[in-house]
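Notes from the 1:1 (GR / supervisor)

We went over the backlog. Supervisor wanted to see one worked example end to end before approving the batch request, so GR pasted a single chain during the call. The sequence is below; no edits were made to it. Supervisor asked that the structure be written out right there so they could see what the output format looks like.
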Amino acid sequence: METARSYGDGCGIALGLDLVGERWALLVVRELLLGPLRFTDLRAGLPSASPNVLSQRLRELERAGLVVRRRLPPPAAAWVYALSPSGMALGPVLTALGTWALRSGASSDGPVSAVSAMLAVRTYWRDGPPVGEVEVRLGERVYAVVDGRVTAGPGNAPVAVVTTDPATLVAALGREDGVTAPGLRAEGDLGAVVALFTRVRLPASDPAPT
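Structure output shown during the call:
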């Protein structure tokens, strides 16, 4: 289903942009890649998007069959948004886009959401010896990391707990001394925390052509 503005082009790329090319649409999808969220959670992850625009994008994504709205069972009984299978299929597209941007040298001092920080952990994790479960607390959001697998919610039996903010976490990735970064508190098995940080390698910029 096309949004209000269409490219009017039969190419598959244009058709895809008709569905998710509006401002904030792909970032809404990004925020939902790790699980359902309430509208207030989406607002927290996308603070620069106005409530009206965010509501409009959610309606458009629902009409396109990429997002579904459902009510959680009691005691939560809250309305949440989740990706449909078709919406989840956009995950590799967003990963490829983000990797391309990092390799191009693109950068920004804009805010980093909790989801985007944890997606970086999941996407750029390198295989190696097993690492114990590390619970990562980013404000009100909590995630469990086990060998690069990221799950929303508290861990089952974490060997370590990291408490920080998303931007500080991203800055610590790939660094052995990340565990001592200002604004980051690590408790428990510090070896597991160091292993988590050093296992993640964000893409480096491609060298400029000569």
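Supervisor's comment: DSSP finds nine helices and seven strands in the chain.
Batch request approved.
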